[in-house]
Amino acid sequence: DELRARTLYRIGKIYLAAGDPSRAVNPLLEAVELTSRLREGADANAESRQGGYHRRRHPTGLVPILDDLGGACLDAGRPADALRAYRRALCIVRATLGPGSAGAAAQLCNVGHVYRLSGYVEEAVKCFREALDVIEDLSPEDDDDDEDGISEEALSSFSSSGMLAGEILTFRIELLNVLGTAQLEHGDAEAALAAFQEAAELERGTNAAAAPTAGERGAALARSRLPVAANVNVLALMGLQRGNSDDDQPTAPAA
Predict the structure, then answer these.
(1) What's the CA gap between 98 and 153, in Å, rounded?
(2) Dihedrals φ, ψ of 183, to 5°?
(3) 43 exposed, middle or buried (CB, 10 Å; 0-12, 13-18, 19+)?
(4) Cα 53 to the chain's mean position, in Å?
(5) Within 13 Å of residue 23, how many CA atoms lie on the same side as its CB?
(6) What are the backbone angles phi and psi of residue 116, rounded to the nearest 5°?
(7) DSSP string spanning the chain?
C-alpha cells in the first residue's frame, strides 16, 4: 500500500506538471486515502505495543499530497473539493506544528484563496488576516538586519513548514497585497489602502543585497497559492478572479 500510495502521488504530480489537473485528481485522492489508512494502522500498532493509551500522531506526510490535491481540484473547477483538501491540511498542520507556525499561515492562505475565488470575500479576508498575524509574529523586528533577529522558535517553524527564514519577507509582502485586494473587493477601501501601503514600505525598505531573488520569490509563494503579482498592482490582482460553476461552490462556514 505504501508503494502504491507513493506511485499514485507521483502520477498525480506528473499530470499536474503536464497541465492536466482533471486527470491528477483521482490518483491524488487515492493517494490520500491510502496514506491515511497507513498512518492509522501505524498508530494502532503503536498503541497495541504500548499496552495502553496512545496519543494518535497526525499524518504529516499527508500535507504535501493534500496541497497538490487542493491545487488540482481548484484548477479543475472543483473548489468545494479543493476547500476540503486545504482545510484538512490546515487541521493537520495546526495539530502538529501549531496554529502559530509558518505552515499554518500557508494553509490559511490556501483556504482564503479558495474562498476569494468562490465569492466568499469576507471569509477570505479573515483567513488572510489570520495568516498575516501569524507571519508578523514570526518576523524579526524592523530594526533587525538579518536572521539574528528571528527567534529560535520562528526558525524552527520555517524549517518545519519547508519555508526558508529568508523567504518570510517575500511571503509577508505578497500576503499584504492579497489581503488588500480582498479587502477592496469587500468594500473596505481604507483597510485595503493600509495593507498596500505597508507592503510598499516593506519592499522599499529592503535593500538590493537583501531583496529576494526571483527563485526565492517563487519558492516562498510555492508554500501557498498566493497569486504572484507586482507590488500594489491592484488591477492585476483584481484580474485574478475566476469564474466557477454554481454547482461546485464551497459552502461558507457558519457564523
Answers:
(1) 11
(2) -65, -40
(3) middle
(4) 33
(5) 10
(6) -65, -45
(7) -HHHHHHHHHHHHHHHHTT-HHHHHHHHHHHHHHHHHHHHHHHHHHHHHHTS---PPP-TTHHHHHHHHHHHHHHTT-HHHHHHHHHHHHHHHHHHT-TTSHHHHHHHHHHHHHHHHTT-HHHHHHHHHHHHHHHHHHSPPTT--SGGGS-HHHHHHHHHHT--GGGHHHHHHHHHHHHHHHHHHTT-HHHHHHHHHHHHHHHHTS-TTTSPPHHHHHHHHTTS-PPP--TT-HHHHHTT-----GGGPPPPPP-
Please say whether the beta carbons of 77 and 26 come within 8 A.
no
Look at 175 and 55; give whichever has higher pLDDT: 175
Structure confidence by residue, pLDDT tens digits, 134-186: 998 887 654 444 444 445 555 555 555 555 555 778 888 999 999 999 999 99
Length of the chain (residues): 255
pLDDT at 58: 41
Three-point CA angle 76, 110, 136, nearest 5°: 160
Joined grid coordinates for residue 242? 475566476
